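Issue 218. Parser rejects a valid record. Input:
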Amino acid sequence: MGKSPVIRITKQFRFEAAHALWNYDGLCRNIHGHSYILSVTIIGSPIDDPENPKSGMVMDFSQMKKIVHDTVVGPFDHALMVNANTPHKELAETNQMFGRVVALPYQPTCENMIVDFAARIKAQLPSNVSLHSLRLDETATSYAEWFATDNL
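Output the parser choked on:
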């Protein structure tokens, strides 16, 4: 038998969140929200075992959904993200007015968020697959991408 094929599979996730960029010199310094779309691509070989109920799959999409929901969508959906290293951390400590506030150890830009999301997802993936890439759409025309090969 030849070498196992290497396949990439992708699943998209949607969540709503708000953020404010501390000390930014534009409008994004104000609290505002986005309808984020996170595309998660993993890479691996399909399971080649007719006795395995997941035979033919690189990973069951439902397993991928659970990992991403537990690590990213659940914690961030309908939350206000702020940089905990700034005066915004007061929002996280006294969040009665805003409800769900997530204090992050970084400026909550699309670029920093995608690096955080990659680490969260990678830590939960089974050993037979790898995280290939992420794409985080912040608006209909603006997104950040993360590729494993760029981050070796």
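Fixed in the parser; the record now loads. Strands lie at 7-19, 32-44, 79-83, 101-104, 129-137, 143-147.
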